[in-house]
Design brief:
The chain is 39% helix and 15% strand. The protein is α/β, with parallel strands linked by helices.
Amino acid sequence: MRSKILLIVEGEKEEPRILGSNSHGLLSLIGSDYDIVTFSNPIYELYDAYKKGDYDDIVSYLRVEKGLEIDKNILSKNAFSSIYLVFDFEPHYHKYKDSKIKDILNVFNNETELGKLYINYPMVESFYYLKNIPDLEYLGRKISLNNFNGKDYKKLVNNETILKKNKLSNKQLCYIIWINYNKVRKIINSKEINHELILDEQLKLKKSTNELYILSTFPLLILDYNYDKTIEVIKEKIKNIEVL
């Protein structure tokens, strides 16, 4: 199997910008060969389309249906060493069901098989939702789903964030990873990252108060890919910033 990463993302703009192909994106912390495929639709559409087709893996589906270019001499299952999916939660989408998103997360739960899903709660813009650095209030920050509107959420984040989307420093990227990592551990009351538990807690909160924890699990894929090296870099970059 080739030592290459496949990243399947929902959006055409924000996710590729966050990942980056230069020294200021999340992928700069990986230093690996990768392909990025933009699906341009919610995860519910990808899941339905994949399930309806006669495909053994998600790479075969993308190769046939989305024109993913792979050397013709390489089998789809051997084309990538790791597969990561980054999509929004989108509870107001017409195909959304609590049971369905749980099924989806159960299917896409391993980066060396069908792929591992990272959910943005409620949307990818949560990646930028820091009002200061440090911003320890982020650990408890929530968003109401009453009359939730994606465009309004984007405006809210743009108005309140201290970050400049096109000029994120490595120190800021490391802080974003660190604060979301610690928010996850607080939400699920565990030192280990478990995406099923994260979803369970989000669904409990949604059911009881119609809110979600604002959370970006997107940057956690860097930790999953190389935990020890990433933690080492983070600690060096944010050593002068107030942390937990």
